[in-house]
């Protein structure tokens, strides 16, 4: 069984980034929860709840990355890469659950009179937005570099937290400026944030579900594979191809056309040359199955 040379490095970077996010979120849950309780702001408490779900889902992402980095075995000949997009789907489902919880409580608070949030909660929210946006950009960059749907999902969870904090900031500002009668602006902000969270959940779920279903990855694979294959002598072109992403890596099934007069041994050698050329040009490709077709 071949061993991967790409996956462990990518998984390690993803794991480290995820752990940083977990530590930051633990601190934010405490800060936002205490500030929301003392400052009479449900939007801030809802924000703390969203950060709490960040911790749980980040743990799922971390476990998914560790599982995906395991080498293929007898029961999993294609590796354990599906654990990675599966973790991303768990994140999206958790986001929807958090959004529903926030929306239900927001609607309840809109109907029940309560105090106007304390002014100091704005300073807390401003700091949270900055921290979360910085974290989103850092995690998102790593997710793009290692091509991990789970890490990208974790990044968008941070972005959704930044959005809920921003909407809470706006809502509390309106309540403070408007005074009596505007207390519910804080709760309307939390309700709006719930809608943003659901939108982000779909943004995470869709590509992860496509990967689980072996959807062809984005990009002009036909053009790229044709150009690479044509660098091998005797190859006339590509007849058919299939590409699927599993975790951090790609698997390719390829039909290449060669002169029909070639011997079986010559065709076999060409197939190996095409496989080697593709793996050299695209290191994220784990395996290539090449079928020879007579031109």
From TrEMBL:
For this record, the Gene Ontology CC terms, alphabetical, are: membrane
Q: Which residues form the Cation efflux protein transmembrane domain?
A: 19-213
Q: Where in the cell is it found?
A: Membrane
Q: What SUPFAM superfamilies has UniProt attached to this entry?
A: Cation efflux protein cytoplasmic domain-like (SSF160240), Cation efflux protein transmembrane domain-like (SSF161111)
GO: which molecular function terms?
monoatomic cation transmembrane transporter activity
Transmembrane stretches in the record are: 19-38, 44-65, 86-104, 116-135, 162-182, 188-205
Primary location group: membrane
What is any Pfam family matched here?
ZT_dimer
Superkingdom of this protein's organism: Bacteria
Mode of membrane association: Multi-pass membrane protein
Question: Per UniProt, which keywords does this protein have?
Answer: Membrane, Transmembrane, Transmembrane helix, Transport
Matching entries from Gene3D superfamilies are given as: Cation efflux protein transmembrane domain, Cation efflux protein, cytoplasmic domain
What InterPro entries would the database entry show?
Cation_efflux, Cation_efflux_CTD, Cation_efflux_CTD_sf, Cation_efflux_TM, Cation_efflux_TMD_sf, CDF_Transporter
**Every Cation efflux protein cytoplasmic domain range:** 222-294
What protein family does this chain belong to? Belongs to the cation diffusion facilitator (CDF) transporter (TC 2.A.4) family.
- Which protein, by its recorded name, is this? Cation transporter
Q: Which organism is it from?
A: Spirosoma agri
């Amino acid at each position: 069984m071949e061993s991967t040379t790409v996956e462990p490095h990518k998984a390690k970077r993803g794991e480290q980034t995820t752990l940083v996010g977990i530590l930051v979120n633990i601190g934010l849950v405490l800060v936002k929860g205490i500030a929301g309780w003392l400052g009479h702001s449900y939007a801030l408490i809802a924000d703390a709840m969203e950060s709490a779900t960040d911790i749980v889902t980040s743990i799922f992402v971390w476990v998914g990355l560790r599982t995906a980095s395991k080498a293929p075995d007898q029961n999993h000949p294609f590796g354990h890469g599906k654990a990675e997009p599966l973790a991303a789907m768990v994140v999206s489902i958790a986001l929807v659950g958090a959004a529903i919880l926030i929306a239900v409580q927001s609607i309840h608070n809109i109907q029940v009179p309560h105090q106007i949030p304390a002014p100091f909660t704005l300073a807390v929210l401003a700091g949270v937005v900055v921290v979360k946006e910085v974290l989103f950009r850092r995690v998102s960059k790593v997710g793009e570099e290692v091509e991990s749907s789970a890490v990208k999902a974790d990044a968008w969870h941070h972005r959704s937290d930044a959005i809920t904090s921003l909407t809470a900031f706006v809502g509390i500002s309106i309540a403070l400026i408007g005074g009596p009668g505007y207390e519910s602006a804080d709760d309307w902000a939390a309700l709006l944030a719930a809608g943003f969270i659901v939108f982000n959940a779909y943004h995470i779920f869709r590509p992860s579900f496509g990967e689980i279903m072996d959807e062809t990855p984005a990009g002009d694979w036909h053009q790229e594979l044709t150009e690479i294959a044509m660098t091998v002598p005797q190859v006339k072109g590509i007849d058919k191809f299939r590409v699927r992403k599993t975790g951090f890596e790609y698997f390719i099934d390829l039909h290449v056309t060669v002169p029909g007069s070639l011997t079986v041994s010559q065709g076999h050698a060409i197939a190996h040359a095409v496989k080697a050329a593709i793996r050299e040009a695209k290191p994220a490709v784990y395996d290539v199955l090449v079928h020879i077709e007579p031109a």
